[in-house]
Specification:
five-stranded mixed sheet, alpha/beta
């Protein structure tokens, strides 16, 4: 800028500097024409100009130069005002961003027993995205109590009555959502509540109790223990949050085939209060919460899960129809509500990271989004509870771990082709390190397990097999080869898997590894042969209330609840 703000001083350097910043110098051309040339020449004699000034000629010129100076001054003030406006807008944007970040409630990702390993990147450097979505039944606020439950429930540990795992494929071309019923009996690992330091021992009980045994991090640890799937983040919402989010979206279309009136019945207390006539309706606010909570009128928890999946699909379709992922105004409104309604794991505790997560779903076609409820069987201890179905549930978790679509048609198209890499080396030439990772399930590791498996390998001709003294941790056995070894490393690993009667799915690339490593997981604690999963030829989608995102669908209403 010029050295002086006095009219006529420092203005030309200011103008030249402004031109360098991209401003239009043409605005000042009259001022430049009025200035004397650097060599003293001009359109008139300099002495004559001075004589004119002393004889009154200057009186005619002063008004014109003063006007130009005023014009220059006005332009400078306009530029200054514009700069203030831009800076003010930027400051307001920053304050708004910080305001949204301040809304977010954050918690620890894990409660201390997260054991699954993150999936290695694909050839393009992409990794799948797994998010655990939790619905809390907490009544510990006035807003939540008003929306459901009795005063006697205030102060009780919250239950994770809704639990869904969102899996987005590494290439972002398909997504799946799997729900686990709240009354599923599972092994829950030891957890520590990060808020008060209270420790909870490992136990075997209903999965919805995990939330009261160390918070959302304990729910995540339990899912990882059960599925072997590495979960990147968790998100949690309560009753009031659901209502606010439903209003912010503007509602979602749901459909019932018959009239529905979910109210208490003789010997069947409770009910969501949902009341709709047969057909399609746009629900939001409290009515959306009623839809998501309806269990009796949809016959069971499994029917409720299906209705929840339909609602989620409808919300995603609604957002895409609104172009909400690209509309700044819509995004700001949704961000305000979402940051107030959600509690998230700390590593995604910023608006930018949440926005980036939302963008991951933007490009997934609706017909490539599949939602279902875990395959299950009745619990032999209590007919009101369920257990993961042997074989079918294992196959489902394996599909997610291996980043495969839940759509059978997609899997048929993408069926792995025969290995065409180089031939594997002779068994005696292949070095492999065996690691004991059997403690991943929370139990004490099996003694000398690595040495026992090493001996099995040597008996198969892999005489270079050795053990590592470093303890490992793996819920499921895996055989990793260094990325640097490329196709040859994979071929060698596959030859070991075949010799040990292991499925090829145990073979994985290790981006940072430097040796071929067999980590014996908690699924192979004992025995000389690799355990085979229970035989189950059914597709994981069969009998699991599967819903495809491209199909709106309509819920059947259990007959006692069809009267209005």
């Amino acid at each position: 800028m010029g050295r002086s703000s006095t009219p006529g001083e420092g203005t030309r350097p200011r103008v030249r500097h402004a031109g360098q910043l991209g401003w239009d110098d043409g605005l000042y051309e009259d001022d430049k024409a009025d200035a004397p040339a650097p060599d003293g020449s001009g359109d008139g004699d300099g002495d004559a100009a001075r004589r004119g000034a002393s004889h009154g000629g200057g009186r005619r010129g002063r008004p014109r130069r003063t006007g130009k100076r005023k014009k220059s001054r006005i332009l400078r003030w306009a530029a200054l005002s514009l700069a203030v406006l831009i800076l003010g807008t930027a400051a307001a944007g920053y304050l708004w961003y910080e305001h949204l970040n301040g809304n977010l409630r954050k918690g620890h990702r894990s409660a201390g027993n997260s054991a699954a390993k993150k999936t290695a990147p694909n050839a393009a450097g992409q990794t799948p995205l797994n998010i655990l979505m939790i619905g809390s039944d907490s009544r510990n606020t006035k807003a939540n109590l008003k929306l459901g439950g009795s005063k006697s429930s205030v102060g009780a540990p919250p239950l994770a009555d809704v639990q869904m795992l969102l899996h987005v494929s590494a290439d972002r071309k398909n997504a799946s959502v799997v729900s686990i019923p709240r009354d599923t009996r599972v092994d829950i690992p030891a957890c520590e509540d990060p808020d008060n330091g209270k420790k909870y021992p490992a136990t075997n009980t209903l999965i919805n109790e995990t939330l009261g045994r160390g918070g959302p991090g304990c729910t995540l640890d339990t899912w990882e223990k059960l599925t072997g799937v590495y979960i990147d983040h968790w998100m949690m919402v309560d009753f009031a949050g659901v209502v606010d989010m439903a209003d912010a979206v503007g509602g979602a279309d749901v459909c019932v085939k018959q009239n529905v009136n979910d109210v208490p019945k003789p010997n069947v207390p409770g009910g969501s209060g949902l009341r709709l006539t047969a057909g399609t309706h746009k629900v939001k606010g409290k009515q959306a919460l009623q839809w998501l909570r309806t269990r009796h009128a949809f016959e069971s928890d499994f029917g409720r899960s299906k209705a929840q999946h339909m609602y989620m699909n409808s919300v995603i379709r609604e957002l895409k129809d609104q172009d909400a992922f690209s509309d700044t105004g819509r995004l700001m409104g949704l961000a305000e509500t979402a940051t107030k309604s959600l509690q998230v794991s700390e590593e995604i505790g910023s608006v930018k990271k949440l926005f980036d997560l939302g963008m991951q779903l933007k490009g997934v076609p609706m017909d490539k989004m599949n939602m279902l409820t875990m395959p299950r069987i009745t619990d032999d201890r209590d007919e009101n509870h369920v257990l993961p179905k042997p074989g079918a549930a294992d196959k489902l978790w394996a599909l997610i771990r291996d980043d495969q679509s839940l759509d059978p048609k997609d899997r048929a198209k993408n069926k792995k082709k025969k290995e065409t890499g180089p031939a594997a080396g002779a068994p005696a030439s292949i070095g492999v390190t065996v690691v004991n990772g059997t403690a991943a399930d929370g139990r004490a590791p099996t003694g000398n397990r690595a040495g026992g498996v090493r001996d099995l390998l040597r008996a198969k001709g892999f005489t270079e097999a050795a053990t590592s003294t470093d303890p490992g941790s793996a819920l499921t056995t895996e055989l990793t080869y260094p990325k640097s070894s490329g196709a040859q490393g994979r071929s060698d690993a596959l030859s070991i898997a075949k010799a040990m009667s292991m499925p090829s799915s145990v073979v994985k690339e290790a981006p940072d590894g430097d040796t071929l490593t067999l980590t014996v997981g908690s699924d192979w604690r004992t025995g000389t042969t690799f355990p085979k999963a229970a035989k189950d030829d059914s597709d994981p989608l069969e009998g699991t209330e599967a819903v495809n995102g491209a199909k709106a669908g309509c819920m059947d209403v259990y007959w006692p609840y069809r009267q209005m």
